[in-house]
Amino acid sequence: MPGFDALPGNTALKASLRTALDRRFPQAVLLSGPDGSGKTDFAQAIAAALLCTGASPRPCGACASCHKVAHGTHPDLIVIDEGDGEIKVETARNIRDEAAILPNDGDRKVFIIHNADRMNLSAQNALLKVLEEPPRYVFFILLSSQPGVLLQTIRSRCAIYQLEPPHVSADQNPELLEPSRAFLRAMAKGDEYGMLLGANGFAKLNKAAFQQAMTLLGTALRDAALVSVGAAPLVPALSAETRALAGALTAEKILAVYDHLTLLSRRAEVNASAPIQCAVLAAGAYAICHPPQSSK
Fold first, then answer.
1. Cα 156 to chain center, whole Å?
2. Over the stretch 77-121, which tens digit does the pLDDT of each residue have?
């Protein structure tokens, strides 16, 4: 079972995870990041480290537990993966019941829940109790590309780890760079019409290119959200725009737009009209960043 060093990128995240594993690891974590960011690999490495019986650093990759995790045969690693389907309340109740059973091999039991944002409301509420008061031996790893869909009460019970988006080179995508720059500049200024003009620059793209554009914008938003902690930008060509965004908007709003982009990218997978998607991109982002003032 490979350790964290074998996983690409996310240097700061890996250091944080190692520190937590050496001290007191939280019993519920939420791995957040877009599709392709490596959430599954990180979840597998974390589970292996928690169940590892070998020497530090963990996972050692050599003990019987690590081998079982690598081959998917560890009895104390329970993986929930409904694919693109909804995670229903019955599944959450089964998780809750399974969590009450002592581990088989060692002193820990780990649950990995893929696409946690696909839990319906009843399922989230059913899982909430065990997240609030988990048995001392139980650890939960939730994976989500849209953490904003989860109930705040679920998110508040988890230590949230944000994965970097897949690396995007703007220099290799000049046709995406200018509309991205125009969109981000208008977003920082609160210019709704300018955001629409920038978004319309993606209107003639095919499905794959549109998804690439959403990834580029998402990466730029990640850069903006992390400006305050001095993280190195993944899209240096848009660094001026991301700094302007960081100065104009809260990290919460920036990350909400990031979730909005992820949803649009998913819709593109089912051949949603690019011009319509562009209009939704601009309108949704503007509404998130500059909501109308409520009248008194």
1. 15
2. 999 998 878 999 999 999 999 999 999 988 999 999 999 999 999
Match 């990759």 to its residue by tokens: 61
Q: Which two tokens stand for residue 295?
A: 């009248």
pLDDT at 221 exceeding the cut of 80: yes
> In b/e form, how buried is each residue of 41-75, taking b as 16+ CB within 10 angstroms?
ebbbbbbbbbbbeeeeebbbbebebbebbeeeebe
pTM of the model: 0.64
Count of other CB atoms within 10 angstroms of residue 35: 14
